[in-house]
Design goal:
The protein is α+β, with helices and mostly antiparallel strands. The chain contains five helices and five strands; from the N terminus they run αααααβββββ. About 50% of the residues lie in helices and about 15% in strands. The longest helix is centred in the middle third of the chain and has 24 residues.
Length: about 210
Amino acid sequence: MPMDILLALSFTLAFVSIVAIFFTDKKIVFSVLAAVLLFYFYKTNMDLGNANLTTLLIFISGLILLGLEIFVPSFGILGILGVVLTAYSIYDIYDSSSQSIMLLLSTALAVIITIFVFVKLGFSAKIFNRNILDKVQDKERGYNSKKDYSDLVGKTGKSVTILRPTGRILIEGKNYDAKSDSEFIGSDKDIRVVSFKDGHIIVEEIKNLY
């Protein structure tokens, strides 16, 4: 395999691994994999004389800004600056601008496909949901739930999305957020509400409804 193709593949797979960090529980594995691939990409290019320490620092700055965009609302400013710096670091490596553009486009396409596959499989990247409160709002903490769905207990319906373990269900023509009592319930499955606990509608799959 030609060196250029191998380097491009390592860069693309590094960003695919970064996406996997947000969607899976194997964060340490994919973090190490992404770090190794990016180290290989930039170290090899530096050895070949295509990049220098400045190029590497520009790339790292771009990654930091992209990371900050996830956690700090900036109306996209930090994200745009991160993309620009990351793209410039790639442009600085290749003599031909068409090569850098092709690498960036192929990487972007791979990232989009990876995200699409994770979403279709029912995974979710909770890190992007800045407005979701992850703490349990129970009475012991001084909270009062505005909605009580305990009246749904015992009712049956359909799963609108995959529940892994959370997702959407349909009961009597209304959609609800729900949580499965097991690890996985597929979409368009018959379900029954078994309890309402800590603000969550807990459901189970009905294997033999008919």
